[in-house]
Amino acid sequence: MLSRKLFCKVLNKYVCNQDVHSISKRLVSTSISFSPQTCVLGIETSCDDTGCAVVNGDGIILGEAICSQTKLHVKFGGINPIIARDLHKDNIDRLVNEALGCANKGVDDIDAIAVTVKPGLLVSLEVGVKYAKYLSRKYNKPLIPIHHMEAHALIARMFHKIKFPFLSLLISGGHCLLVVVKDIDDFLLLGTTVDNSPGEVLDKVARRMKLKNIEELSKLSGGRAIEEAAKTSCGTHIFQFPVPLVRDRDCNFSFSGLNEAFLKHLAVKESEHQIAGDEIIPEYEDLCAAFQTAVTEHILHRTERAILFCQKNNFLNDGFNIVVSGGVACNNFIFNSIEKLGIKYNYSVYRPPPQYCTDNGVMIAWNGMEKIRNKCDINLPVEIDPNAPLGESIINDVKKANLKCRVIRVNKLLR
Ligand code: KG4
Ligand code: ZN
């Protein structure tokens, strides 16, 4: 079983040269006038969740349907791309009809179809894009290509009044990004991960610790299982972790060192208790808590430098808002810590409701709606790009600024 990132890379390389980019032909070229009654159908299939939703111009969710594959992939010990693709294929038609049915609409009543085209797993992206193209042709509806990470960053605006520009921390199973969101289609990339994403390492750690053998954690995603297990830790400090990239004065992230440190701690405890087969170390809650704390402190450290950089360059004008999104943003320990950091600098910190932090069709429909409302050019080629970056990178400018920033200890912050 491959990690999310690795199998994305392998598969994407393999299939990219085939005729996927022929999808880039323009479909129905038109402009759509905006009103509160405007309706957008959103389709998301970038990884292992099939999400469909209908959203109107007032930002009301008229209908939605989602099929999460998490339980199945947890059972098999990681995402299997072929299973992910086949489940998208099996479910997409039913879910689109379910979302339309809830909204009491047919495809004819929809003004546009928004679909995730990048980044993500190629074989998964293809299912959604092909289906959206089919609907677009059949019903003569415009198709709006959507960047998955832009949609994660913007969905919070459907639930909170957040003006541009704002700072966004996007933490998920595939990404770890710090961006300044200047406008709907204008992003500045301050930092990204140099190796793994936080969701990826949380999933690995949960798997290696065999948390799925604990009944009440068995159906949860790795990150959620670690958060739950950490809640019952007695808070001992037997597990120490290094702070990644402590000497690099930038906003990049690295999680592989934390994963290695975790493996060492686990090996020591497994040998101490002579753990065999499906058994779990007795200190699993403390190890989960210590790992979660280490991940949080690293995220806080880089986010604090991003705040300092934005202040120095007056990037946020007077809008001191931070939006946290992506699946890992569901984590209350991490989110509460960022909220506390926000208080230190007088920033408000927002996130979407948990079911809209993880992948969903609503964020895709909403992004399409925001593009229509703001008259963005929506007649773009519908081009699949599995490895698309987000925005204009100013990572080197952040490095050059050489901003000193001390590591915050999360226990002190939350006190
Ligand atoms: O955004 P998402 O649904 O999919 C990607 O685009 O990657 O994020 C999925 C990731 C998984 O790695 C999962 O373990 C993590 O989000 N996640 C959590 C929590 N709930 C989901 N991580 C930490 N704490 C949680 N409560
Ligand atoms: Zn995502």
In brief:
The protein has helices at 4-16, 70-75, 81-102, 122-139, 148-154, 156-159, 198-208, 222-231, 256-272, 284-312, 332-345, 354-357, 362-373, 395-401, 410-414, and strands spanning 39-44, 49-56, 61-68, 112-118, 143-147, 166-171, 176-183, 186-192, 321-325, 348-350, 392-393. It is an alpha/beta fold and 415 residues long.
In words, what does this structure look like?
The protein has 415 residues and is an alpha/beta fold. The chain folds into 2 domains: 4-159 and 356-384, 2-Layer Sandwich (Nucleotidyltransferase, domain 5); 166-351 and 393-413, ATPase, nucleotide binding domain (Nucleotidyltransferase, domain 5, 2-Layer Sandwich). 43% of the residues lie in helices and 16% in strands. The protein has 15 helices and 11 strands. It has a 6-stranded mixed beta sheet, sandwiched between helices. It has a 5-stranded mixed beta sheet with strand order 3-2-1-4-5, with helices on both faces. A hairpin with a 4-residue loop joins strand 2 (49-56) and strand 3 (61-68). The longest helix is centred in the C-terminal third of the chain and has 29 residues, at 284-312. The chain is globular, with a radius of gyration of 21 Å. The relative contact order is 0.18. Bound molecules: 5'-O-[(R)-(carboxyoxy)(hydroxy)phosphoryl]adenosine and zinc ion (ZN). 5'-O-[(R)-(carboxyoxy)(hydroxy)phosphoryl]adenosine is lined by residues 47, 172-174, 199, 202-203, 221-224, 227, 326-328, 330-331, 358-359.
